Records
---
Amino acid sequence: MEPSAYLPLREPTLFILLSLSADNKHGYAILQDVEALSDGRVELSTSTLYEALARLLDQGLIARVEGPAAADDQNPGRPRKVYRLTPSGRRVLNAEVVRLQGLVATAQQRLRAAGSC
Amino acid sequence: MREMVLARLIALIQALHRCTLYAFPPSFRSRFGEEMAEVLSERLATAEEEGARAVVSLGAREFWQMPAALVRLYLYRWKKKGRRIRAFVSQVRAQPVFGVPPVADDGRFSTGQLLLEVVPFLLAAIPIAWLTYRPLPWLPDAGRTPVDAAVFWSGIPPALALTVGLVRGMPRWAYPHAGLLGGYTLWLAAERRQIWLWVTLLTMVVGLSVMAAVVHERGRPLPPFFRRLGGSVGLDWTRLSLGVFGAAPWLILAAFDNAYLDGRTPYLGLALLAMVLTVVVYGRRGRQERQLAALLGGATLLMVPAVMDHVYWLGSLRAVGWIVVLCVWAVALLVLPMLVVPVQWASNLAPLGSGEE
């Protein structure tokens, strides 16, 4: 499917993809990263996060893989599931960023024009 | 004391969270349930260090956002299921039918074909109108109503015509006779309270047809006679709808069941006229959707006079419910062939579409 078919992305989805664009993360790390990326504005619940992850997995934009077991894990020794961005997920993310850039450019242009009047 | 209250609050949130997980679909729960619980525990552990306010805030956010997440999740799954069903249906409908011998041109736009199609409806309409408006006193069996007398003999002509049609590979003109015969047998079955037998026989015929189609598709091709019949339906699925419309005279007889008593109702004449005109319009349409629209419009139009007649004689809309039910059944049966006959079967129609109108 074309990346444009997934656009526009919902804000949590955009932040989740953005969070996974740097490296693979498990659920808790994604939550923390989304919060940090949005300056604490977007605080996802586990249900919102996993609903979005399930949808993104189904659409093939992310993949779920076995990650290394964390030392401070509640179940030591058991590997945790981590999520990684797939190439098509990266294409969708890039397309969304381009779309947002275009939107911002148009808005700035209009505001500048309005300011000069 | 404060730590104990906080620990109990955390345990309560975790327990409630585990309970609410049951609102998610089982497959989602088995895949992500444990992980969600683990992530929540980690978040609660972090919040615990920040104090009770953070724990309460986290718990509130969890349960506040859950309904919206559930709605999105179920909506996504339903949409996906819908897409799958649509894809499956289009896949099934796109299956080519192998081994169907080429069939002759269906005679669309041919005046001869149109006349042959209209004849059975005229042959049904004329006696109905005659017996209603000009009753014949010399009819045998004075105890019977004119309708009964007409019914008694009316099964033979369509049976003969249908036999000829079957022998000739079911050209389009033969389909209304199948509907007429079907209506005849249904009428007799209803009159003699043997409707269950009729339904059983019809179910068997439909079941055998489906089995024949499956055998033809997956196993050996059927004998040429059956293949010709399949080819005839495959050429244009609206033929089946026309066959269903063939039962229209019986529909009119049922809807105007008391018309012969008053003998003056103009509505019966209007219904008969609508029936005949519908077949003419159907015969002149070049596209299947227009053909179907003609039949649907006709079925509705011929029921309108029936409703008007009942309202005129009874003075209210109370007794017209069953006529509406009849009309709904007729419309459903007319549309059914469109849903069950694969699109690919009708590929032979492509060259004909360009020549229309």
---
Amino acid sequence: MTTSQALPTRAPALTAWLRHSTAAAALLGASLAAAPAPAQDLVASAPPAAAEPGTHWRPQASERLVRLSPEYLKRRIDHDFAGSGLGQALRQNGERIAHKGNTLADLQAAIERADGELRIELRHQFLAEKRAYLQLMSDQIEMRRREAETRLSLYDDMLGALSRDKAAMTPDRQALVDKQMEARQRMASTLSTVDLQVFASPGVPESRYATKYAENMGAIEQLVNRMREHDMNRSVTADGEELTKEEFIRRMASKAQGDLALLDQEVTILGYMAKLIALDAMELSERATDPELSDAALSTDSGPAEAVNFFLRN
Amino acid sequence: MTRTSNTTVAIVLAVATAAGAAAAQAGSLDNLERERAVLVAALLDPEITSAERIELVTRARPRLVDLERMVLRDDSLVGRTTPQVRRAFENYDLTFLVHSGAERNLSEIDTWLDQLGINSEAALAAEIRRR
């Protein structure tokens, strides 16, 4: 019996197990043959979304992407994913899962109200729908796994790009930069003195460069202030602590890693669900082939006392 | 003194020529060094009169101030570890003559000579002898 075999933990293997598990398929087939053919609209399941062409997402960690502000960076990546083939397939599959859930709820309610042959038929349909649901959920998990792995790879590339910028600042280079900054400050401290000595003399024309520079600096300061106040340039905080871009990307990578770990757990859940479906199918099959196990009013080893109620009413 | 000043001018002109020949790009630092070399050459030129020297310096000084500020504000030079940039920022007083002179209340030529170690004490202590 395939139900005694170890259940696969990865979604693709689980999908294959669902499709090709001989015992489950045989049992379902046998029980369906014993009952009237169910309505097509209840049994038909959607084709696996993961196999559709164009379900890909291939973002690139470009220089432009790395330079975006943290908040806009996340939105940009999410927007890119939503427009990709994989994002659309994930959304469509999610809608199918939601519809399938409604079907399962309806069937479950109908089973509770039904009895006899109709109840058996509905239970068969319920099993088939649960199998279809598992298939959809398995595809969903596989697509979410691909999304999480792609995100993780993208974040790794972005962190690599950021660390390459940092690594370029060698001690020698840093020493030069320090000297240059010191020189700028020294110049700033003598600006007025130099202007007084050089440009205050009569006959010396005012420096066009100095005038234009001052005008442009005024405009730059206004623009920089506006950028600082801009909604899309808000710095990201977590637990009251302001995050740098590198820290923000590392947190997103941790979240993607966590999503991958949770997906493994969801595959385990699907595995147990599949096992239960197989057991239910076995039970239904035995009830269909062995009248003694069907929902009979009396058990095979019942005594006359158990049939008393039949003789008390006419 | 005449021989010393002739030698000094020759050295300055050689440096200015070498600097001019090596300038492959007209970057802000290249322009500054070119203008500075022209100014120093003018300051040390024995052929011109004092009045002409003063006029030359007066005309060159505002241009040099702008060029020095352009170099100091040039973000493309920040962290650029070429020998020229390293040398320029190794000695602020030698590179940015006008700003340094204004800080220390010295003329450009006095600033430049002081940075080269040529001052009154050194001149008086110099010996004329065969080496």
---
Amino acid sequence: MAQKTVEFNVGRNPEMGVDGLPTPSPMAPFDVPEPDLGEEHMLVNIGPQHPATHGVLRLVCELDGETVVNVTPHIGFLHSSFEKLGEYRTWNQIVPLTDRMDYLAPLIYNCAYVMSVEKLMGLEVTPRCKVARVILMELDRIFGHLLWLGTTAIDVGAFTPFLYTFHERERIYTLHEKLTGARITTSATRVGGLMADFPEGWIAELEHFLDTFPRTLEEVHQLLTGNGILIGRTQGIGVIGAEEAVNYGFTGPNLRASGVDYDVRKDQPYYDYETYDFEVPIGEHGDCYDRYLVRMEEMEQSIGILRQAIERLPDGPMDVEDPRITLPTKTDAMSDMESMIHHFKLITEGIPVPSGDCYLPVEASKGELGMYLVSNGGGKPVRWRVRPPSFVNISVLPKLARGHLVSDLIMINASLDIVLGEIDR
Amino acid sequence: MNGLDGVDAGPIPSDTGAAPEAGAPADPAGHPSVAALFDRFGDAVTHHEVSAGDEHVVHVDPSRNVEILGWLKDDPDQRYDLLRDVTCVDHGGGEPLRVVYQLWSIPHRRALRVRCLLELDALEIDSVVPLWATANWLEREVYDLFGVTFRGHPDLRRILMPHDYAEGHPLRKDFPLRGRFSRAEQTRRALNQDVDRFYIPAERAVGREPQEVTLAAESGDSETEG
């Protein structure tokens, strides 16, 4: 398996412990005597409305001075019961719910959901659709990582990378809008295909993005990767070893930063990912800095995958022709009785999905996204379960933050790359 | 049932649900772990089926779930070290709830799904938190949304719904989409919130007693007097 250890020309600061032990703050400004506060601990609320929590997350911290003794994440503020709503909807009507979960990389969720329905139906999509979905998913991996990069830079006090990354994100928003008509709530996929083929000139615009985006990424690299403040704030902070990371259910870049070579695209490939030439970046220290490096490298790899996918994008139909899911043409539905009945039944009852259950994992930008569907043969799911990567990742925060300073807690939280819409669902 | 009827009644009322069709038993030789499970645990593995083409599912005795899952995790030939997901499925109609564990073995690149069927009058199962720390929040979510109690869980309390949510467990099939209480009652409860309900007991115990704080710097001669 192709694998790559992230390496940059950056020395690790020996004073910042990488052995997992918290280190004292490198920037104590004044030589003042520590006030004697006794044994009392303080309880401090961070959030739910605080920009550093990256959403509506509430962290209740028990502090000893400035050191985190314990932290309890309280979630559920954005709970929208998407899984319950899904039980009232036909299979295709669920697609708009999926992009409202991870609104930072909506197309991955659109694709993952319909992929699981298609697997349960035993439906093979067209070659063009496969490559098109790879393009959408890799584009949104960059999309999600860019938001993480900008907000993390803000959390360590660097404002410029935020402007750069959000400018690039805006260009991806434009691509979303040209393809689907919406910037965030894309709802781009349908069971058996996409809502529409790529519009004219879309691929050329994507290529232009791929040509110019690496320059921005390089600039951010120069601004951040060797930056003393970023290194001081991230190296040796929030360390988790490989075995523990697996035990705590880490997936995605967080797990790979701890040195575990697990990527769904390589280990359980879908959509011919095994034929694309790309490398999976692996970290070795499992700290915030390695999580940063792994995501930076993943964006580079995604650019490569996108280029290959554009090159191999075949002509041909985007949607499968299958009477179970394909609506008859408007002309047929209006002139032919059988076609009209067919149209009516597909719309009112939903597409029939055979009885059974199916768990389909894909590599989302946050980690392993699993869609677990249970059907009893009807037009609606019995159960639609999303295995949320951010939900599992944020559950490790108390373990990572214990013993660190409050400012490190903010950095650790940022390095996990969470999105609350998907944690709360 | 169609349209908005379900909004008030729940997707499948508990008296009309259809029993899930059990998949046809599959050949245990198709999956190395399943064959080993049958050899080692015999009667405790009650069913094996293949779903969606290539996904192997085994049903195990809920009273021995920790023993069997622990063996799957630690045995050198199995090594299912990543617990992808813990969730639950309610089929309605008085059918048993199904607690579902999705396992993945990073070294062997194998997946296995383990189901435990829990009768509605005995919704208790041993927690697997001692095996996988990731089960902590996942089991809390199942407890919150389905009402399954996990014995031995270190911190079993609601996670997505408020701590004092009194309307039941929302993902059960007989739970109506709008909740069990009227909108007026829900509003009344929301307005009568006590601040203390936002904190768990362990947090309420921190720093409750007021304490005199003296700064060491103030005891000597200090510039604050001047």
